[in-house]
Specification:
The complex is a heterodimer of chains A (357) and B (101).
Chain A (H helix, E strand, L loop, with lengths): L1 E6 L11 E7 L2 E8 L7 H5 L7 H6 L6 H16 L5 H29 L3 H22 L8 E2 L2 E2 L5 H27 L1 H7 L7 H6 L4 H5 L30 H24 L15 E10 L2 E10 L4 E7 L1 H13 L7 H8 L3 H5 L1
Antiparallel strand pairs in A: 1-2, 2-3, 4-5, 6-7, 7-8
Helix pairs in contact in A: 3-4, 4-5, 4-10, 4-12, 5-6, 6-10, 10-12, 11-12
Chain B lengths: L6 H10 L20 E3 L11 H5 L5 E4 L5 E4 L9 H5 L6 E3 L5
Antiparallel strand pairs in B: 1-4, 2-3
Classes of the chains: A alpha+beta (357), B alpha+beta (101).
């Protein structure tokens, strides 16, 4: 005899409203049906009614976690339509802020995961470390989350010597503090008993269901859009983080290793900052279409932009990484224990505000 | 098998005391350039051109020239992007800290 248990939209482990209708037999989940639409704000439609330069700030508000990456990807799309080549310094600064966002997103996700398996003190410890990177972002741009630093043609803010020193200090503090927390997440017996072997997603299913980002990389798929070398990634030295455990533990491990990777990338980018202007001046309105991609903390985001020669866009479409990760997540939920649902959902790191816009 | 891995951190926290501030009594200095609120310190410099209102993505600013000249700012519509501060030809807009808002 099966029965339906609603999981969410309001649930202690969920940071955002997502409902999963779980069909269970005894304690085992047989199938899951996602219900979304609780935070739909109509931002794509609103973006068609505003000036394409005002859209930079609007699109930043799609997501509160990867806000800067949304706005830079949008700007890259407009630059592609209008054939604008952005200055070298802007490319490096975009990398630096993107990676700061990746650190803060991964620390947030790891903290929430710790909360999901009931380790409150670890959750607070990780979020305490996260404050360092929030301070670094606030000192360099003036905003903790909404940086508003991207604009069409380059960036609006600069990182001077004093700010660079501050950021590097904060990165060293994160590295030292996070080592202890990563040790707990990876080695503690109790934590491992909740994550190892939970939410299995093998490489073939991950590929077939279109998993992206850390979810795909934890299943052994070497897929990282940064490898294509957009912005200044082609001039920086890094290797995509790949694990082949296919479970929640591997996904945690990928995020932990990516935090260190991002710290390294910011250091490289700040050390190599070239001395050029921040912005390329341009005239006119976008006419044409472009599809651009970028690697966000949760995976690959796709922007489709179409301009018709006026200052307003004809179409702005966003495919967010969480949307691609919902199908693999449902596969993981099949056959799992009801008590593990929270851990599985948060191991994917869903961002529902992104998905619904 | 490793258990109580967190113990070292927990004991350290116990000795070290709280990391948070007693907020209303103790305050952190705001970072320079913090985007807390849009201010116009000297309205006599404003020429009421309306560029800031045109650039604003959230319609938080309204500038009227007739019958009376007025620059109006709605704090709760503002998303603090700073498009107006950049656009102002007379440089009479600036950011203030959160406390000033």
């Amino acid at each position: 005899m099966s029965m339906i248990v609603p999981f969410g939209p309001q649930h202690p482990v969920l940071p955002e409203p997502l409902q999963l209708r779980l069909e269970i037999v005894d304690e085992t989940v047989v199938s899951a049906l996602p219900v979304i639409g609780y935070v739909h704000r109509g931002l794509e439609r609103l973006a068609e009614q505003k000036d394409f330069q005002q859209d930079t700030y609007l699109i930043e508000h799609i997501c509160g976690i990867c806000s800067f990456m949304h706005s830079t990807t949008y700007c890259t799309g407009i630059e592609e339509i209008m054939n604008i080549e952005i200055p070298e310094r802007a490319k490096y600064l975009r990398v630096a802020w993107s990676e700061m966002h990746r650190i803060h997103s991964h620390l947030l996700a790891l903290g929430l995961l710790a909360d999901a398996f009931g380790f409150e003190s670890l959750f607070y410890q990780i979020w305490r470390t996260r404050e360092h990177i929030m301070d670094a972002m606030e000192f360099t741009t003036g905003g903790r989350v909404m940086l508003s630093a991207a604009c069409v043609g380059g960036v609006r803010k600069d990182i001077n010597e004093e700010q660079k020193k501050f950021v590097l200090e904060k990165l060293a503090a994160i590295e030292a503090e996070f080592k202890e927390e990563a040790h707990v997440l990876l080695d503690d017996y109790t934590v491992k008993s909740r994550t190892v072997g939970v939410g299995i997603l093998d490489a073939k299913t991950a590929y077939e269901r279109g998993a992206v980002g850390p979810t795909a990389r934890a299943s052994g798929i070497k897929m990282d859009h940064r490898m294509t070398g957009y912005f200044a990634y082609d001039k920086l030295d890094f290797e995509p983080v790949v694990e082949d455990g296919c479970d929640a533990y591997s996904r945690t491990k990928v995020r932990i290793r990516e935090v260190y990777q991002s710290i390294d990338l910011i250091r490289q980018a700040l050390a190599a900052l070239p001395d050029t202007p921040l912005k390329t001046p341009f005239k006119g309105n976008p006419n044409g279409e472009a599809a651009v991609r970028a690697e966000q903390p949760r995976g690959e985001v796709i922007y489709y932009l179409k301009g018709n020669g006026t200052d307003k866009l004809a179409r702005c479409r966003v495919r967010t990484p969480t949307f691609a990760n919902v199908a693999p997540m449902l596969h993981m939920l099949n056959g799992c224990n009801l008590a593990n649902v929270g851990v599985i959902v948060l191991s994917v790191d869903p961002c529902i505000s992104c998905t619904e816009r | 098998m490793k258990i109580v891995v967190m113990l070292k951190t927990l004991l350290f926290n116990l000795i070290k005391g709280p990391v948070t501030r007693k907020y209303p009594y103790e305050e952190r200095e705001p970072f320079p350039g913090e985007r807390g609120v849009i201010l116009m310190p000297d309205e006599s410099k404003c020429i009421y051109c309306g560029l800031c209102a045109r650039k604003c993505p959230s319609n938080a600013l309204t500038v009227t020239r007739a019958p009376g000249k007025e620059w109006k700012y709605e704090r709760f519509r503002c998303i603090l992007c700073g498009a107006c501060v950049e656009a102002c030809p007379k440089k009479c807009l600036e950011f203030g800290s959160r406390k000033q808002g």
